[in-house]
Q: What sequence folds into this?
């Protein structure tokens, strides 16, 4: 009898290229949960009802969580922006600093500032994501946004900016937090700040995904392009001292010849899905 393969499973095994006649699960459903045997940190892959959305439970250890939080407290290396209701920090690229809300006497405009690159103190985390095949080695994330949520703070429903590719990956620290996903009728690239995110047409389908601390959220496929996500602005169920810190990692091709851009990735996903559905419809005609 042929012995089963003992080759270690990695996340890429759950996102294989789509064949000509895949099953619907391969196109529209998230991967099945498996245990990743990693010598540095064992984590569990957990499926969600949102297509393309995967949770990696306990992606880091409690000690590693503390080391990240301690680094973020280092004012010599980390600068929090306080122009928003929540504290935010940027690494990589540029960002807009909003004028104070109290500044009503002048027509102040947002300032575009250069963010520092992702610091070496987070390189071990990026390498672990590469080792787990969350990101490929030649498409390592260059951008990271850190958000701190306390009390009743949250963020409105949105998709990540379409100038970035997939996956979009979020590491959650400290308290667990439910994240609500809204299915859209079609992909929609609109930011919260511009007010366009609220104009996205929704199907009405909502899914709440609980995000534990020390865990990684990986958005690919439909969850990346066709579902908005939000964190509710409510202190209900959070308790005294509730606090969540998130690090969102994103990758963008530096030039048009390096990898597929975000629009091409989504177009390919939709094309492969539609081709499958078309072939199934044709097959039914002859059965």
A:
């Amino acid at each position: 009898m042929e012995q089963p393969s003992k080759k270690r499973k990695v996340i890429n095994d759950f996102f294989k290229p789509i064949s000509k006649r895949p099953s619907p699960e391969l196109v529209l459903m998230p991967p099945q949960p498996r245990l990743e045997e990693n010598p540095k940190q064992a984590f569990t892959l957990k499926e969600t009802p949102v297509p393309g959305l995967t949770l990696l439970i306990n992606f880091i250890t409690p000690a590693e969580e503390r080391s990240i939080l301690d680094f973020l407290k280092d004012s010599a290396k980390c600068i929090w922006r306080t122009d928003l209701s929540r504290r935010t920090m940027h690494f990589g690229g540029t960002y807009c600093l909003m004028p104070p809300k109290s500044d009503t006497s002048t027509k102040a405009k947002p300032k575009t500032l250069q963010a520092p690159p992702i610091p070496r103190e987070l390189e071990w985390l990026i390498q672990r994501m590469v080792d787990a095949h969350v990101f490929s080695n030649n498409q390592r994330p260059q951008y990271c946004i850190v958000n701190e949520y306390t009390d009743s703070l949250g963020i409105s429903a949105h998709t990540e900016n379409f100038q970035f590719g997939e996956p979009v990956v979020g590491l959650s620290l400290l308290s667990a937090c439910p994240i609500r996903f809204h299915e859209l009728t079609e992909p929609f690239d609109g930011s919260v700040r511009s007010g366009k995110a609220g104009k996205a047409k929704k199907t009405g389908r909502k899914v709440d995904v609980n995000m534990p601390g020390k865990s990684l959220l990986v958005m690919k496929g439909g969850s990346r392009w066709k579902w908005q996500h939000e964190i509710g602005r409510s202190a209900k169920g959070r308790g005294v001292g509730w606090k969540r810190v998130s690090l969102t990692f994103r990758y963008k091709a530096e030039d048009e010849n390096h990898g597929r851009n975000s629009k091409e990735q989504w177009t390919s996903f939709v094309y492969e899905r539609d081709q499958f559905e078309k072939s199934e419809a044709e097959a039914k005609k002859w059965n």
Summary: The helical segments are 24-28, 62-72, 123-131, 221-225, 262-286. The chain has five helices and 14 strands. The first helix runs from residue 24 to 28.
